[in-house]
Amino acid sequence: MIQVRHLNKIFNEKTVNEKRAIDDLSLTIDDGDFICMIGANGSGKSTLLQCLSGALISESGSILMDGKDITLDSQHRRADQIGHLFQDPLAGTAPHMSVEENLSLAAKTGGWFSLISDHDRELFREKLASLDMGLEDKLDVNVGTLSGGMRQALALVMNTIRRPKLLLLDEHTAALDPQSAAKVLELTKKTVDENQLTCIMVTHDMQTALELGNRLIMMHEGRIILDLNKEEKEKLSVEDLIMMFRSKTKEDLFNDRMLLS
């Protein structure tokens, strides 16, 4: 469904601070893939997701979706087909608007000056009730007053209410407490499975990456150094992944968040 061909993204080009964040990267994402992406800080994971969403435009290379070249399309133009959740629980929502208003904007059924129908409201309640967090009773509550876990769960619903072609999750549980993170991760798996979504989830938790999804991709210095299918990764342990990283890079994986997760 999605083809990334020879993508390059460089920050501060032709300066002493030049950083090649994505280095001649090619990747094919099939319809229904649930990819868990791991790698040390600075390996290019978030940059790749931003290139896919349109938040960043690459210096060279191409991105095709269903055969159509979207490389130069803006983030706004891609928003109807690509959902994007961030690490910050407030980044994907409007904190000074109500839960209902946020959902209305995401579903494009209402907005600042439009009335929300009873049908829309029932749809919102049904979606929120499936989270089992009591959000269906908080439609008129401002999002900024919700807990981090509730905000991320709401953002998940907002990004999937219109069933995107691609869902990008950029460490969307990293800023949550362990209990909330586990709940949001459970909801993520349920949402992706039930809606048969194509998804890329960046995580620092290598055990989660081994357990979830049908592919595991490891990045290093802007390149993909490991791409495992479901059968291959189910046979591995976290220690195996660390050894694979050392074998591929001749370096140690010095990243506390990855090793302690």
Description:
The chain is an alpha/beta fold. Helices cover about 35% and strands about 25% of the residues. The protein has 10 helices and 10 strands. The protein has helices spanning about 45-55, 75-80, 100-105, 120-130, 150-160, 180-195, 205-210, 230-235, 240-250, 255-260, and strands spanning about 1-10, 20-30, 35-40, 60-65, 70, 80-85, 165-170, 200, 215-220, 225-230. It has a 6-stranded mixed beta sheet, with helices on both faces. A 4-stranded antiparallel beta sheet has the order 2-1-4-5, covered by helices on one side. A hairpin with a 2-residue loop joins strand 9 and strand 10. The radius of gyration is 19 Å and the shape is globular. The two termini are about 30 Å apart. The mean pLDDT is about 90.
Itemize the secondary structure elements and their pairings.
Layout (H helix, E strand, L loop, with lengths): L1 E10 L7 E11 L4 E5 L6 H9 L6 E6 L2 E2 L5 H4 L3 E4 L13 H9 L10 H12 L18 H13 L5 E5 L7 H18 L3 E4 L3 H6 L3 E6 L2 E7 H5 L3 H12 L6 H5 L1
Helix pairs in contact: 3-5, 5-6
Structure classification:
alpha/beta
Rounded to the nearest angstrom, the distance between the terminal CA atoms is 32 Å
Number of strands: 10
| Computed CA radius of gyration, to the nearest angstrom | 19 Å
**What percent of residues are in strands?**
15-25%
As residue ranges, the low-confidence spans are none
Please tell me what the overall shape is. Answer: globular
Q: Describe the biggest sheet?
A: 6 strands, mixed
